[in-house]
Amino acid sequence: MRSRDLWQALSARRYLLSAWPWRATAYLLTGAVTGAATLVGLAVALVVGGALTVVLVGLPLLLLTALAGIPLARLERHRLRLVDRAPVPGRPVREPPATGPWPWLVTRLRERATWRELGHALLFALLLWPLDALVVAFALAVPLHLAATPLVMATFGGGEEAKVLKQWTVTTWPTACGVAVLGLLLLALGGYALGLAAGARAELARVLVGAPREGDPDAREARVVELTRSRVRLVDAFEAERRRIERDLHDGAQQRLVALTMSLGLARLDAPPGPLADQLAKAHGEAGEALAELRELIHGIHPKVLADYGLPAAVADAADRSAVPVDVALELPGRLPRAVEAAAYFVVREALANIGRHSGADRAEVTGGHRDGRLVLRVRDDGRGGADAAAGSGLTGLADRVSVLDGRLSLSSPPGGPTLLSVEIPCEWTERFA
């Protein structure tokens, strides 16, 4: 059975004949090279950043230096594949609240994992890579030098003498062969020493740059991030399913019902007066009513105007259908994420339905736009007020839906009015109109 990691391989009898000693050596050697390069890079960045701080140019460089652990941690997770065939999961990355370098930088600096990875980078640059180099030197280079004593004696010593580790002189062939045997024995022991050292280094790296363990604050934060992402994925999947149902009903059942209505109408025109004509007229009327109800159902599932033309057109359509006159002033020169548009539309539609049913208002207005990376909507009416979102108005479920998108829904409705419903959802443009 093939070992999946270095620890399993160390307990196997054929460890020295497998590729694992070479993999452990490669892990330690690449660690020594990477650590030395990291030390030079950090030193240069700190010196240059400190020197340029007097003219404020060095401050951004020092801030970027604090993020040096992120790419090094990513590289370390790749290097761990040398001693562990299974990929090492990284920490979940929190999405910035807005696009741009500054929100990304602030988000990274607020994460505990960023500072843990910076600590790993400093430990790597100052302590770990010299240890990697020493282990390789004593466990591999020294035994190989001893094992090559007869070759050195024959090649460079004229068959008369050879220097061993530049300390001792060997002048006889039996002694040279004995040193070579000792070197081979030490090389076998060094293979195990390399495996143990590489395994210990890998365990430390997993703690510092791997996914947080159960019970750690970072683990709780990672679960929150993953739960948030899963909720967003569910919302996206729900919206996609709504659009599919709307499309299937529009292109399937509705078209068949339209054809049925037309056929009944033609049959009604051709039928002579009498009971048959009366029945056809009744069936034609019921088919027309069923078609109207189906169209309303399709519109309620996911209006086609929202998918085709965006939120402003869908809100204007909802305002035209409202029982109360509605003024619309919605400035959105582009398209927003579909989940955001759908949530905002259904909030507006539910608010207008409540205004028509309960408020006694003479007029309502819908205003809003996109400001500072957020969609902002306001629905206001001049009714009697006293509305309560928790009293079965239908807004509670919409508030939950908005919160999934990290948004906020608030209702202000004092007795006597006016009533103001506010919605804010963080989002960015997916398409800008010319």
UniProtKB/TrEMBL annotation:
Signal peptide: none
SUPFAM superfamilies noted in UniProt: ATPase domain of HSP90 chaperone/DNA topoisomerase II/histidine kinase
EC number of this enzyme: 2.7.13.3
UniProt organism field: Streptomyces hyderabadensis
Name of this protein: histidine kinase
Molecular function, one GO term: kinase activity
Catalytic activity, as annotated: ATP + protein L-histidine = ADP + protein N-phospho-L-histidine
Putative sensor domain sequence ranges: 27-208
Gene3D superfamilies noted in UniProt: 1.20.5.1930, Histidine kinase-like ATPase, C-terminal domain
Domain Signal transduction histidine kinase subgroup 3 dimerisation and phosphoacceptor per the UniProt entry, residue ranges: 241-306
TM segment ranges: 20-48, 54-75, 118-142, 173-198
Keywords: ATP-binding, Kinase, Membrane, Nucleotide-binding, Phosphoprotein, Transferase, Transmembrane, Transmembrane helix, Two-component regulatory system
Domain of life from the UniProt record: Bacteria
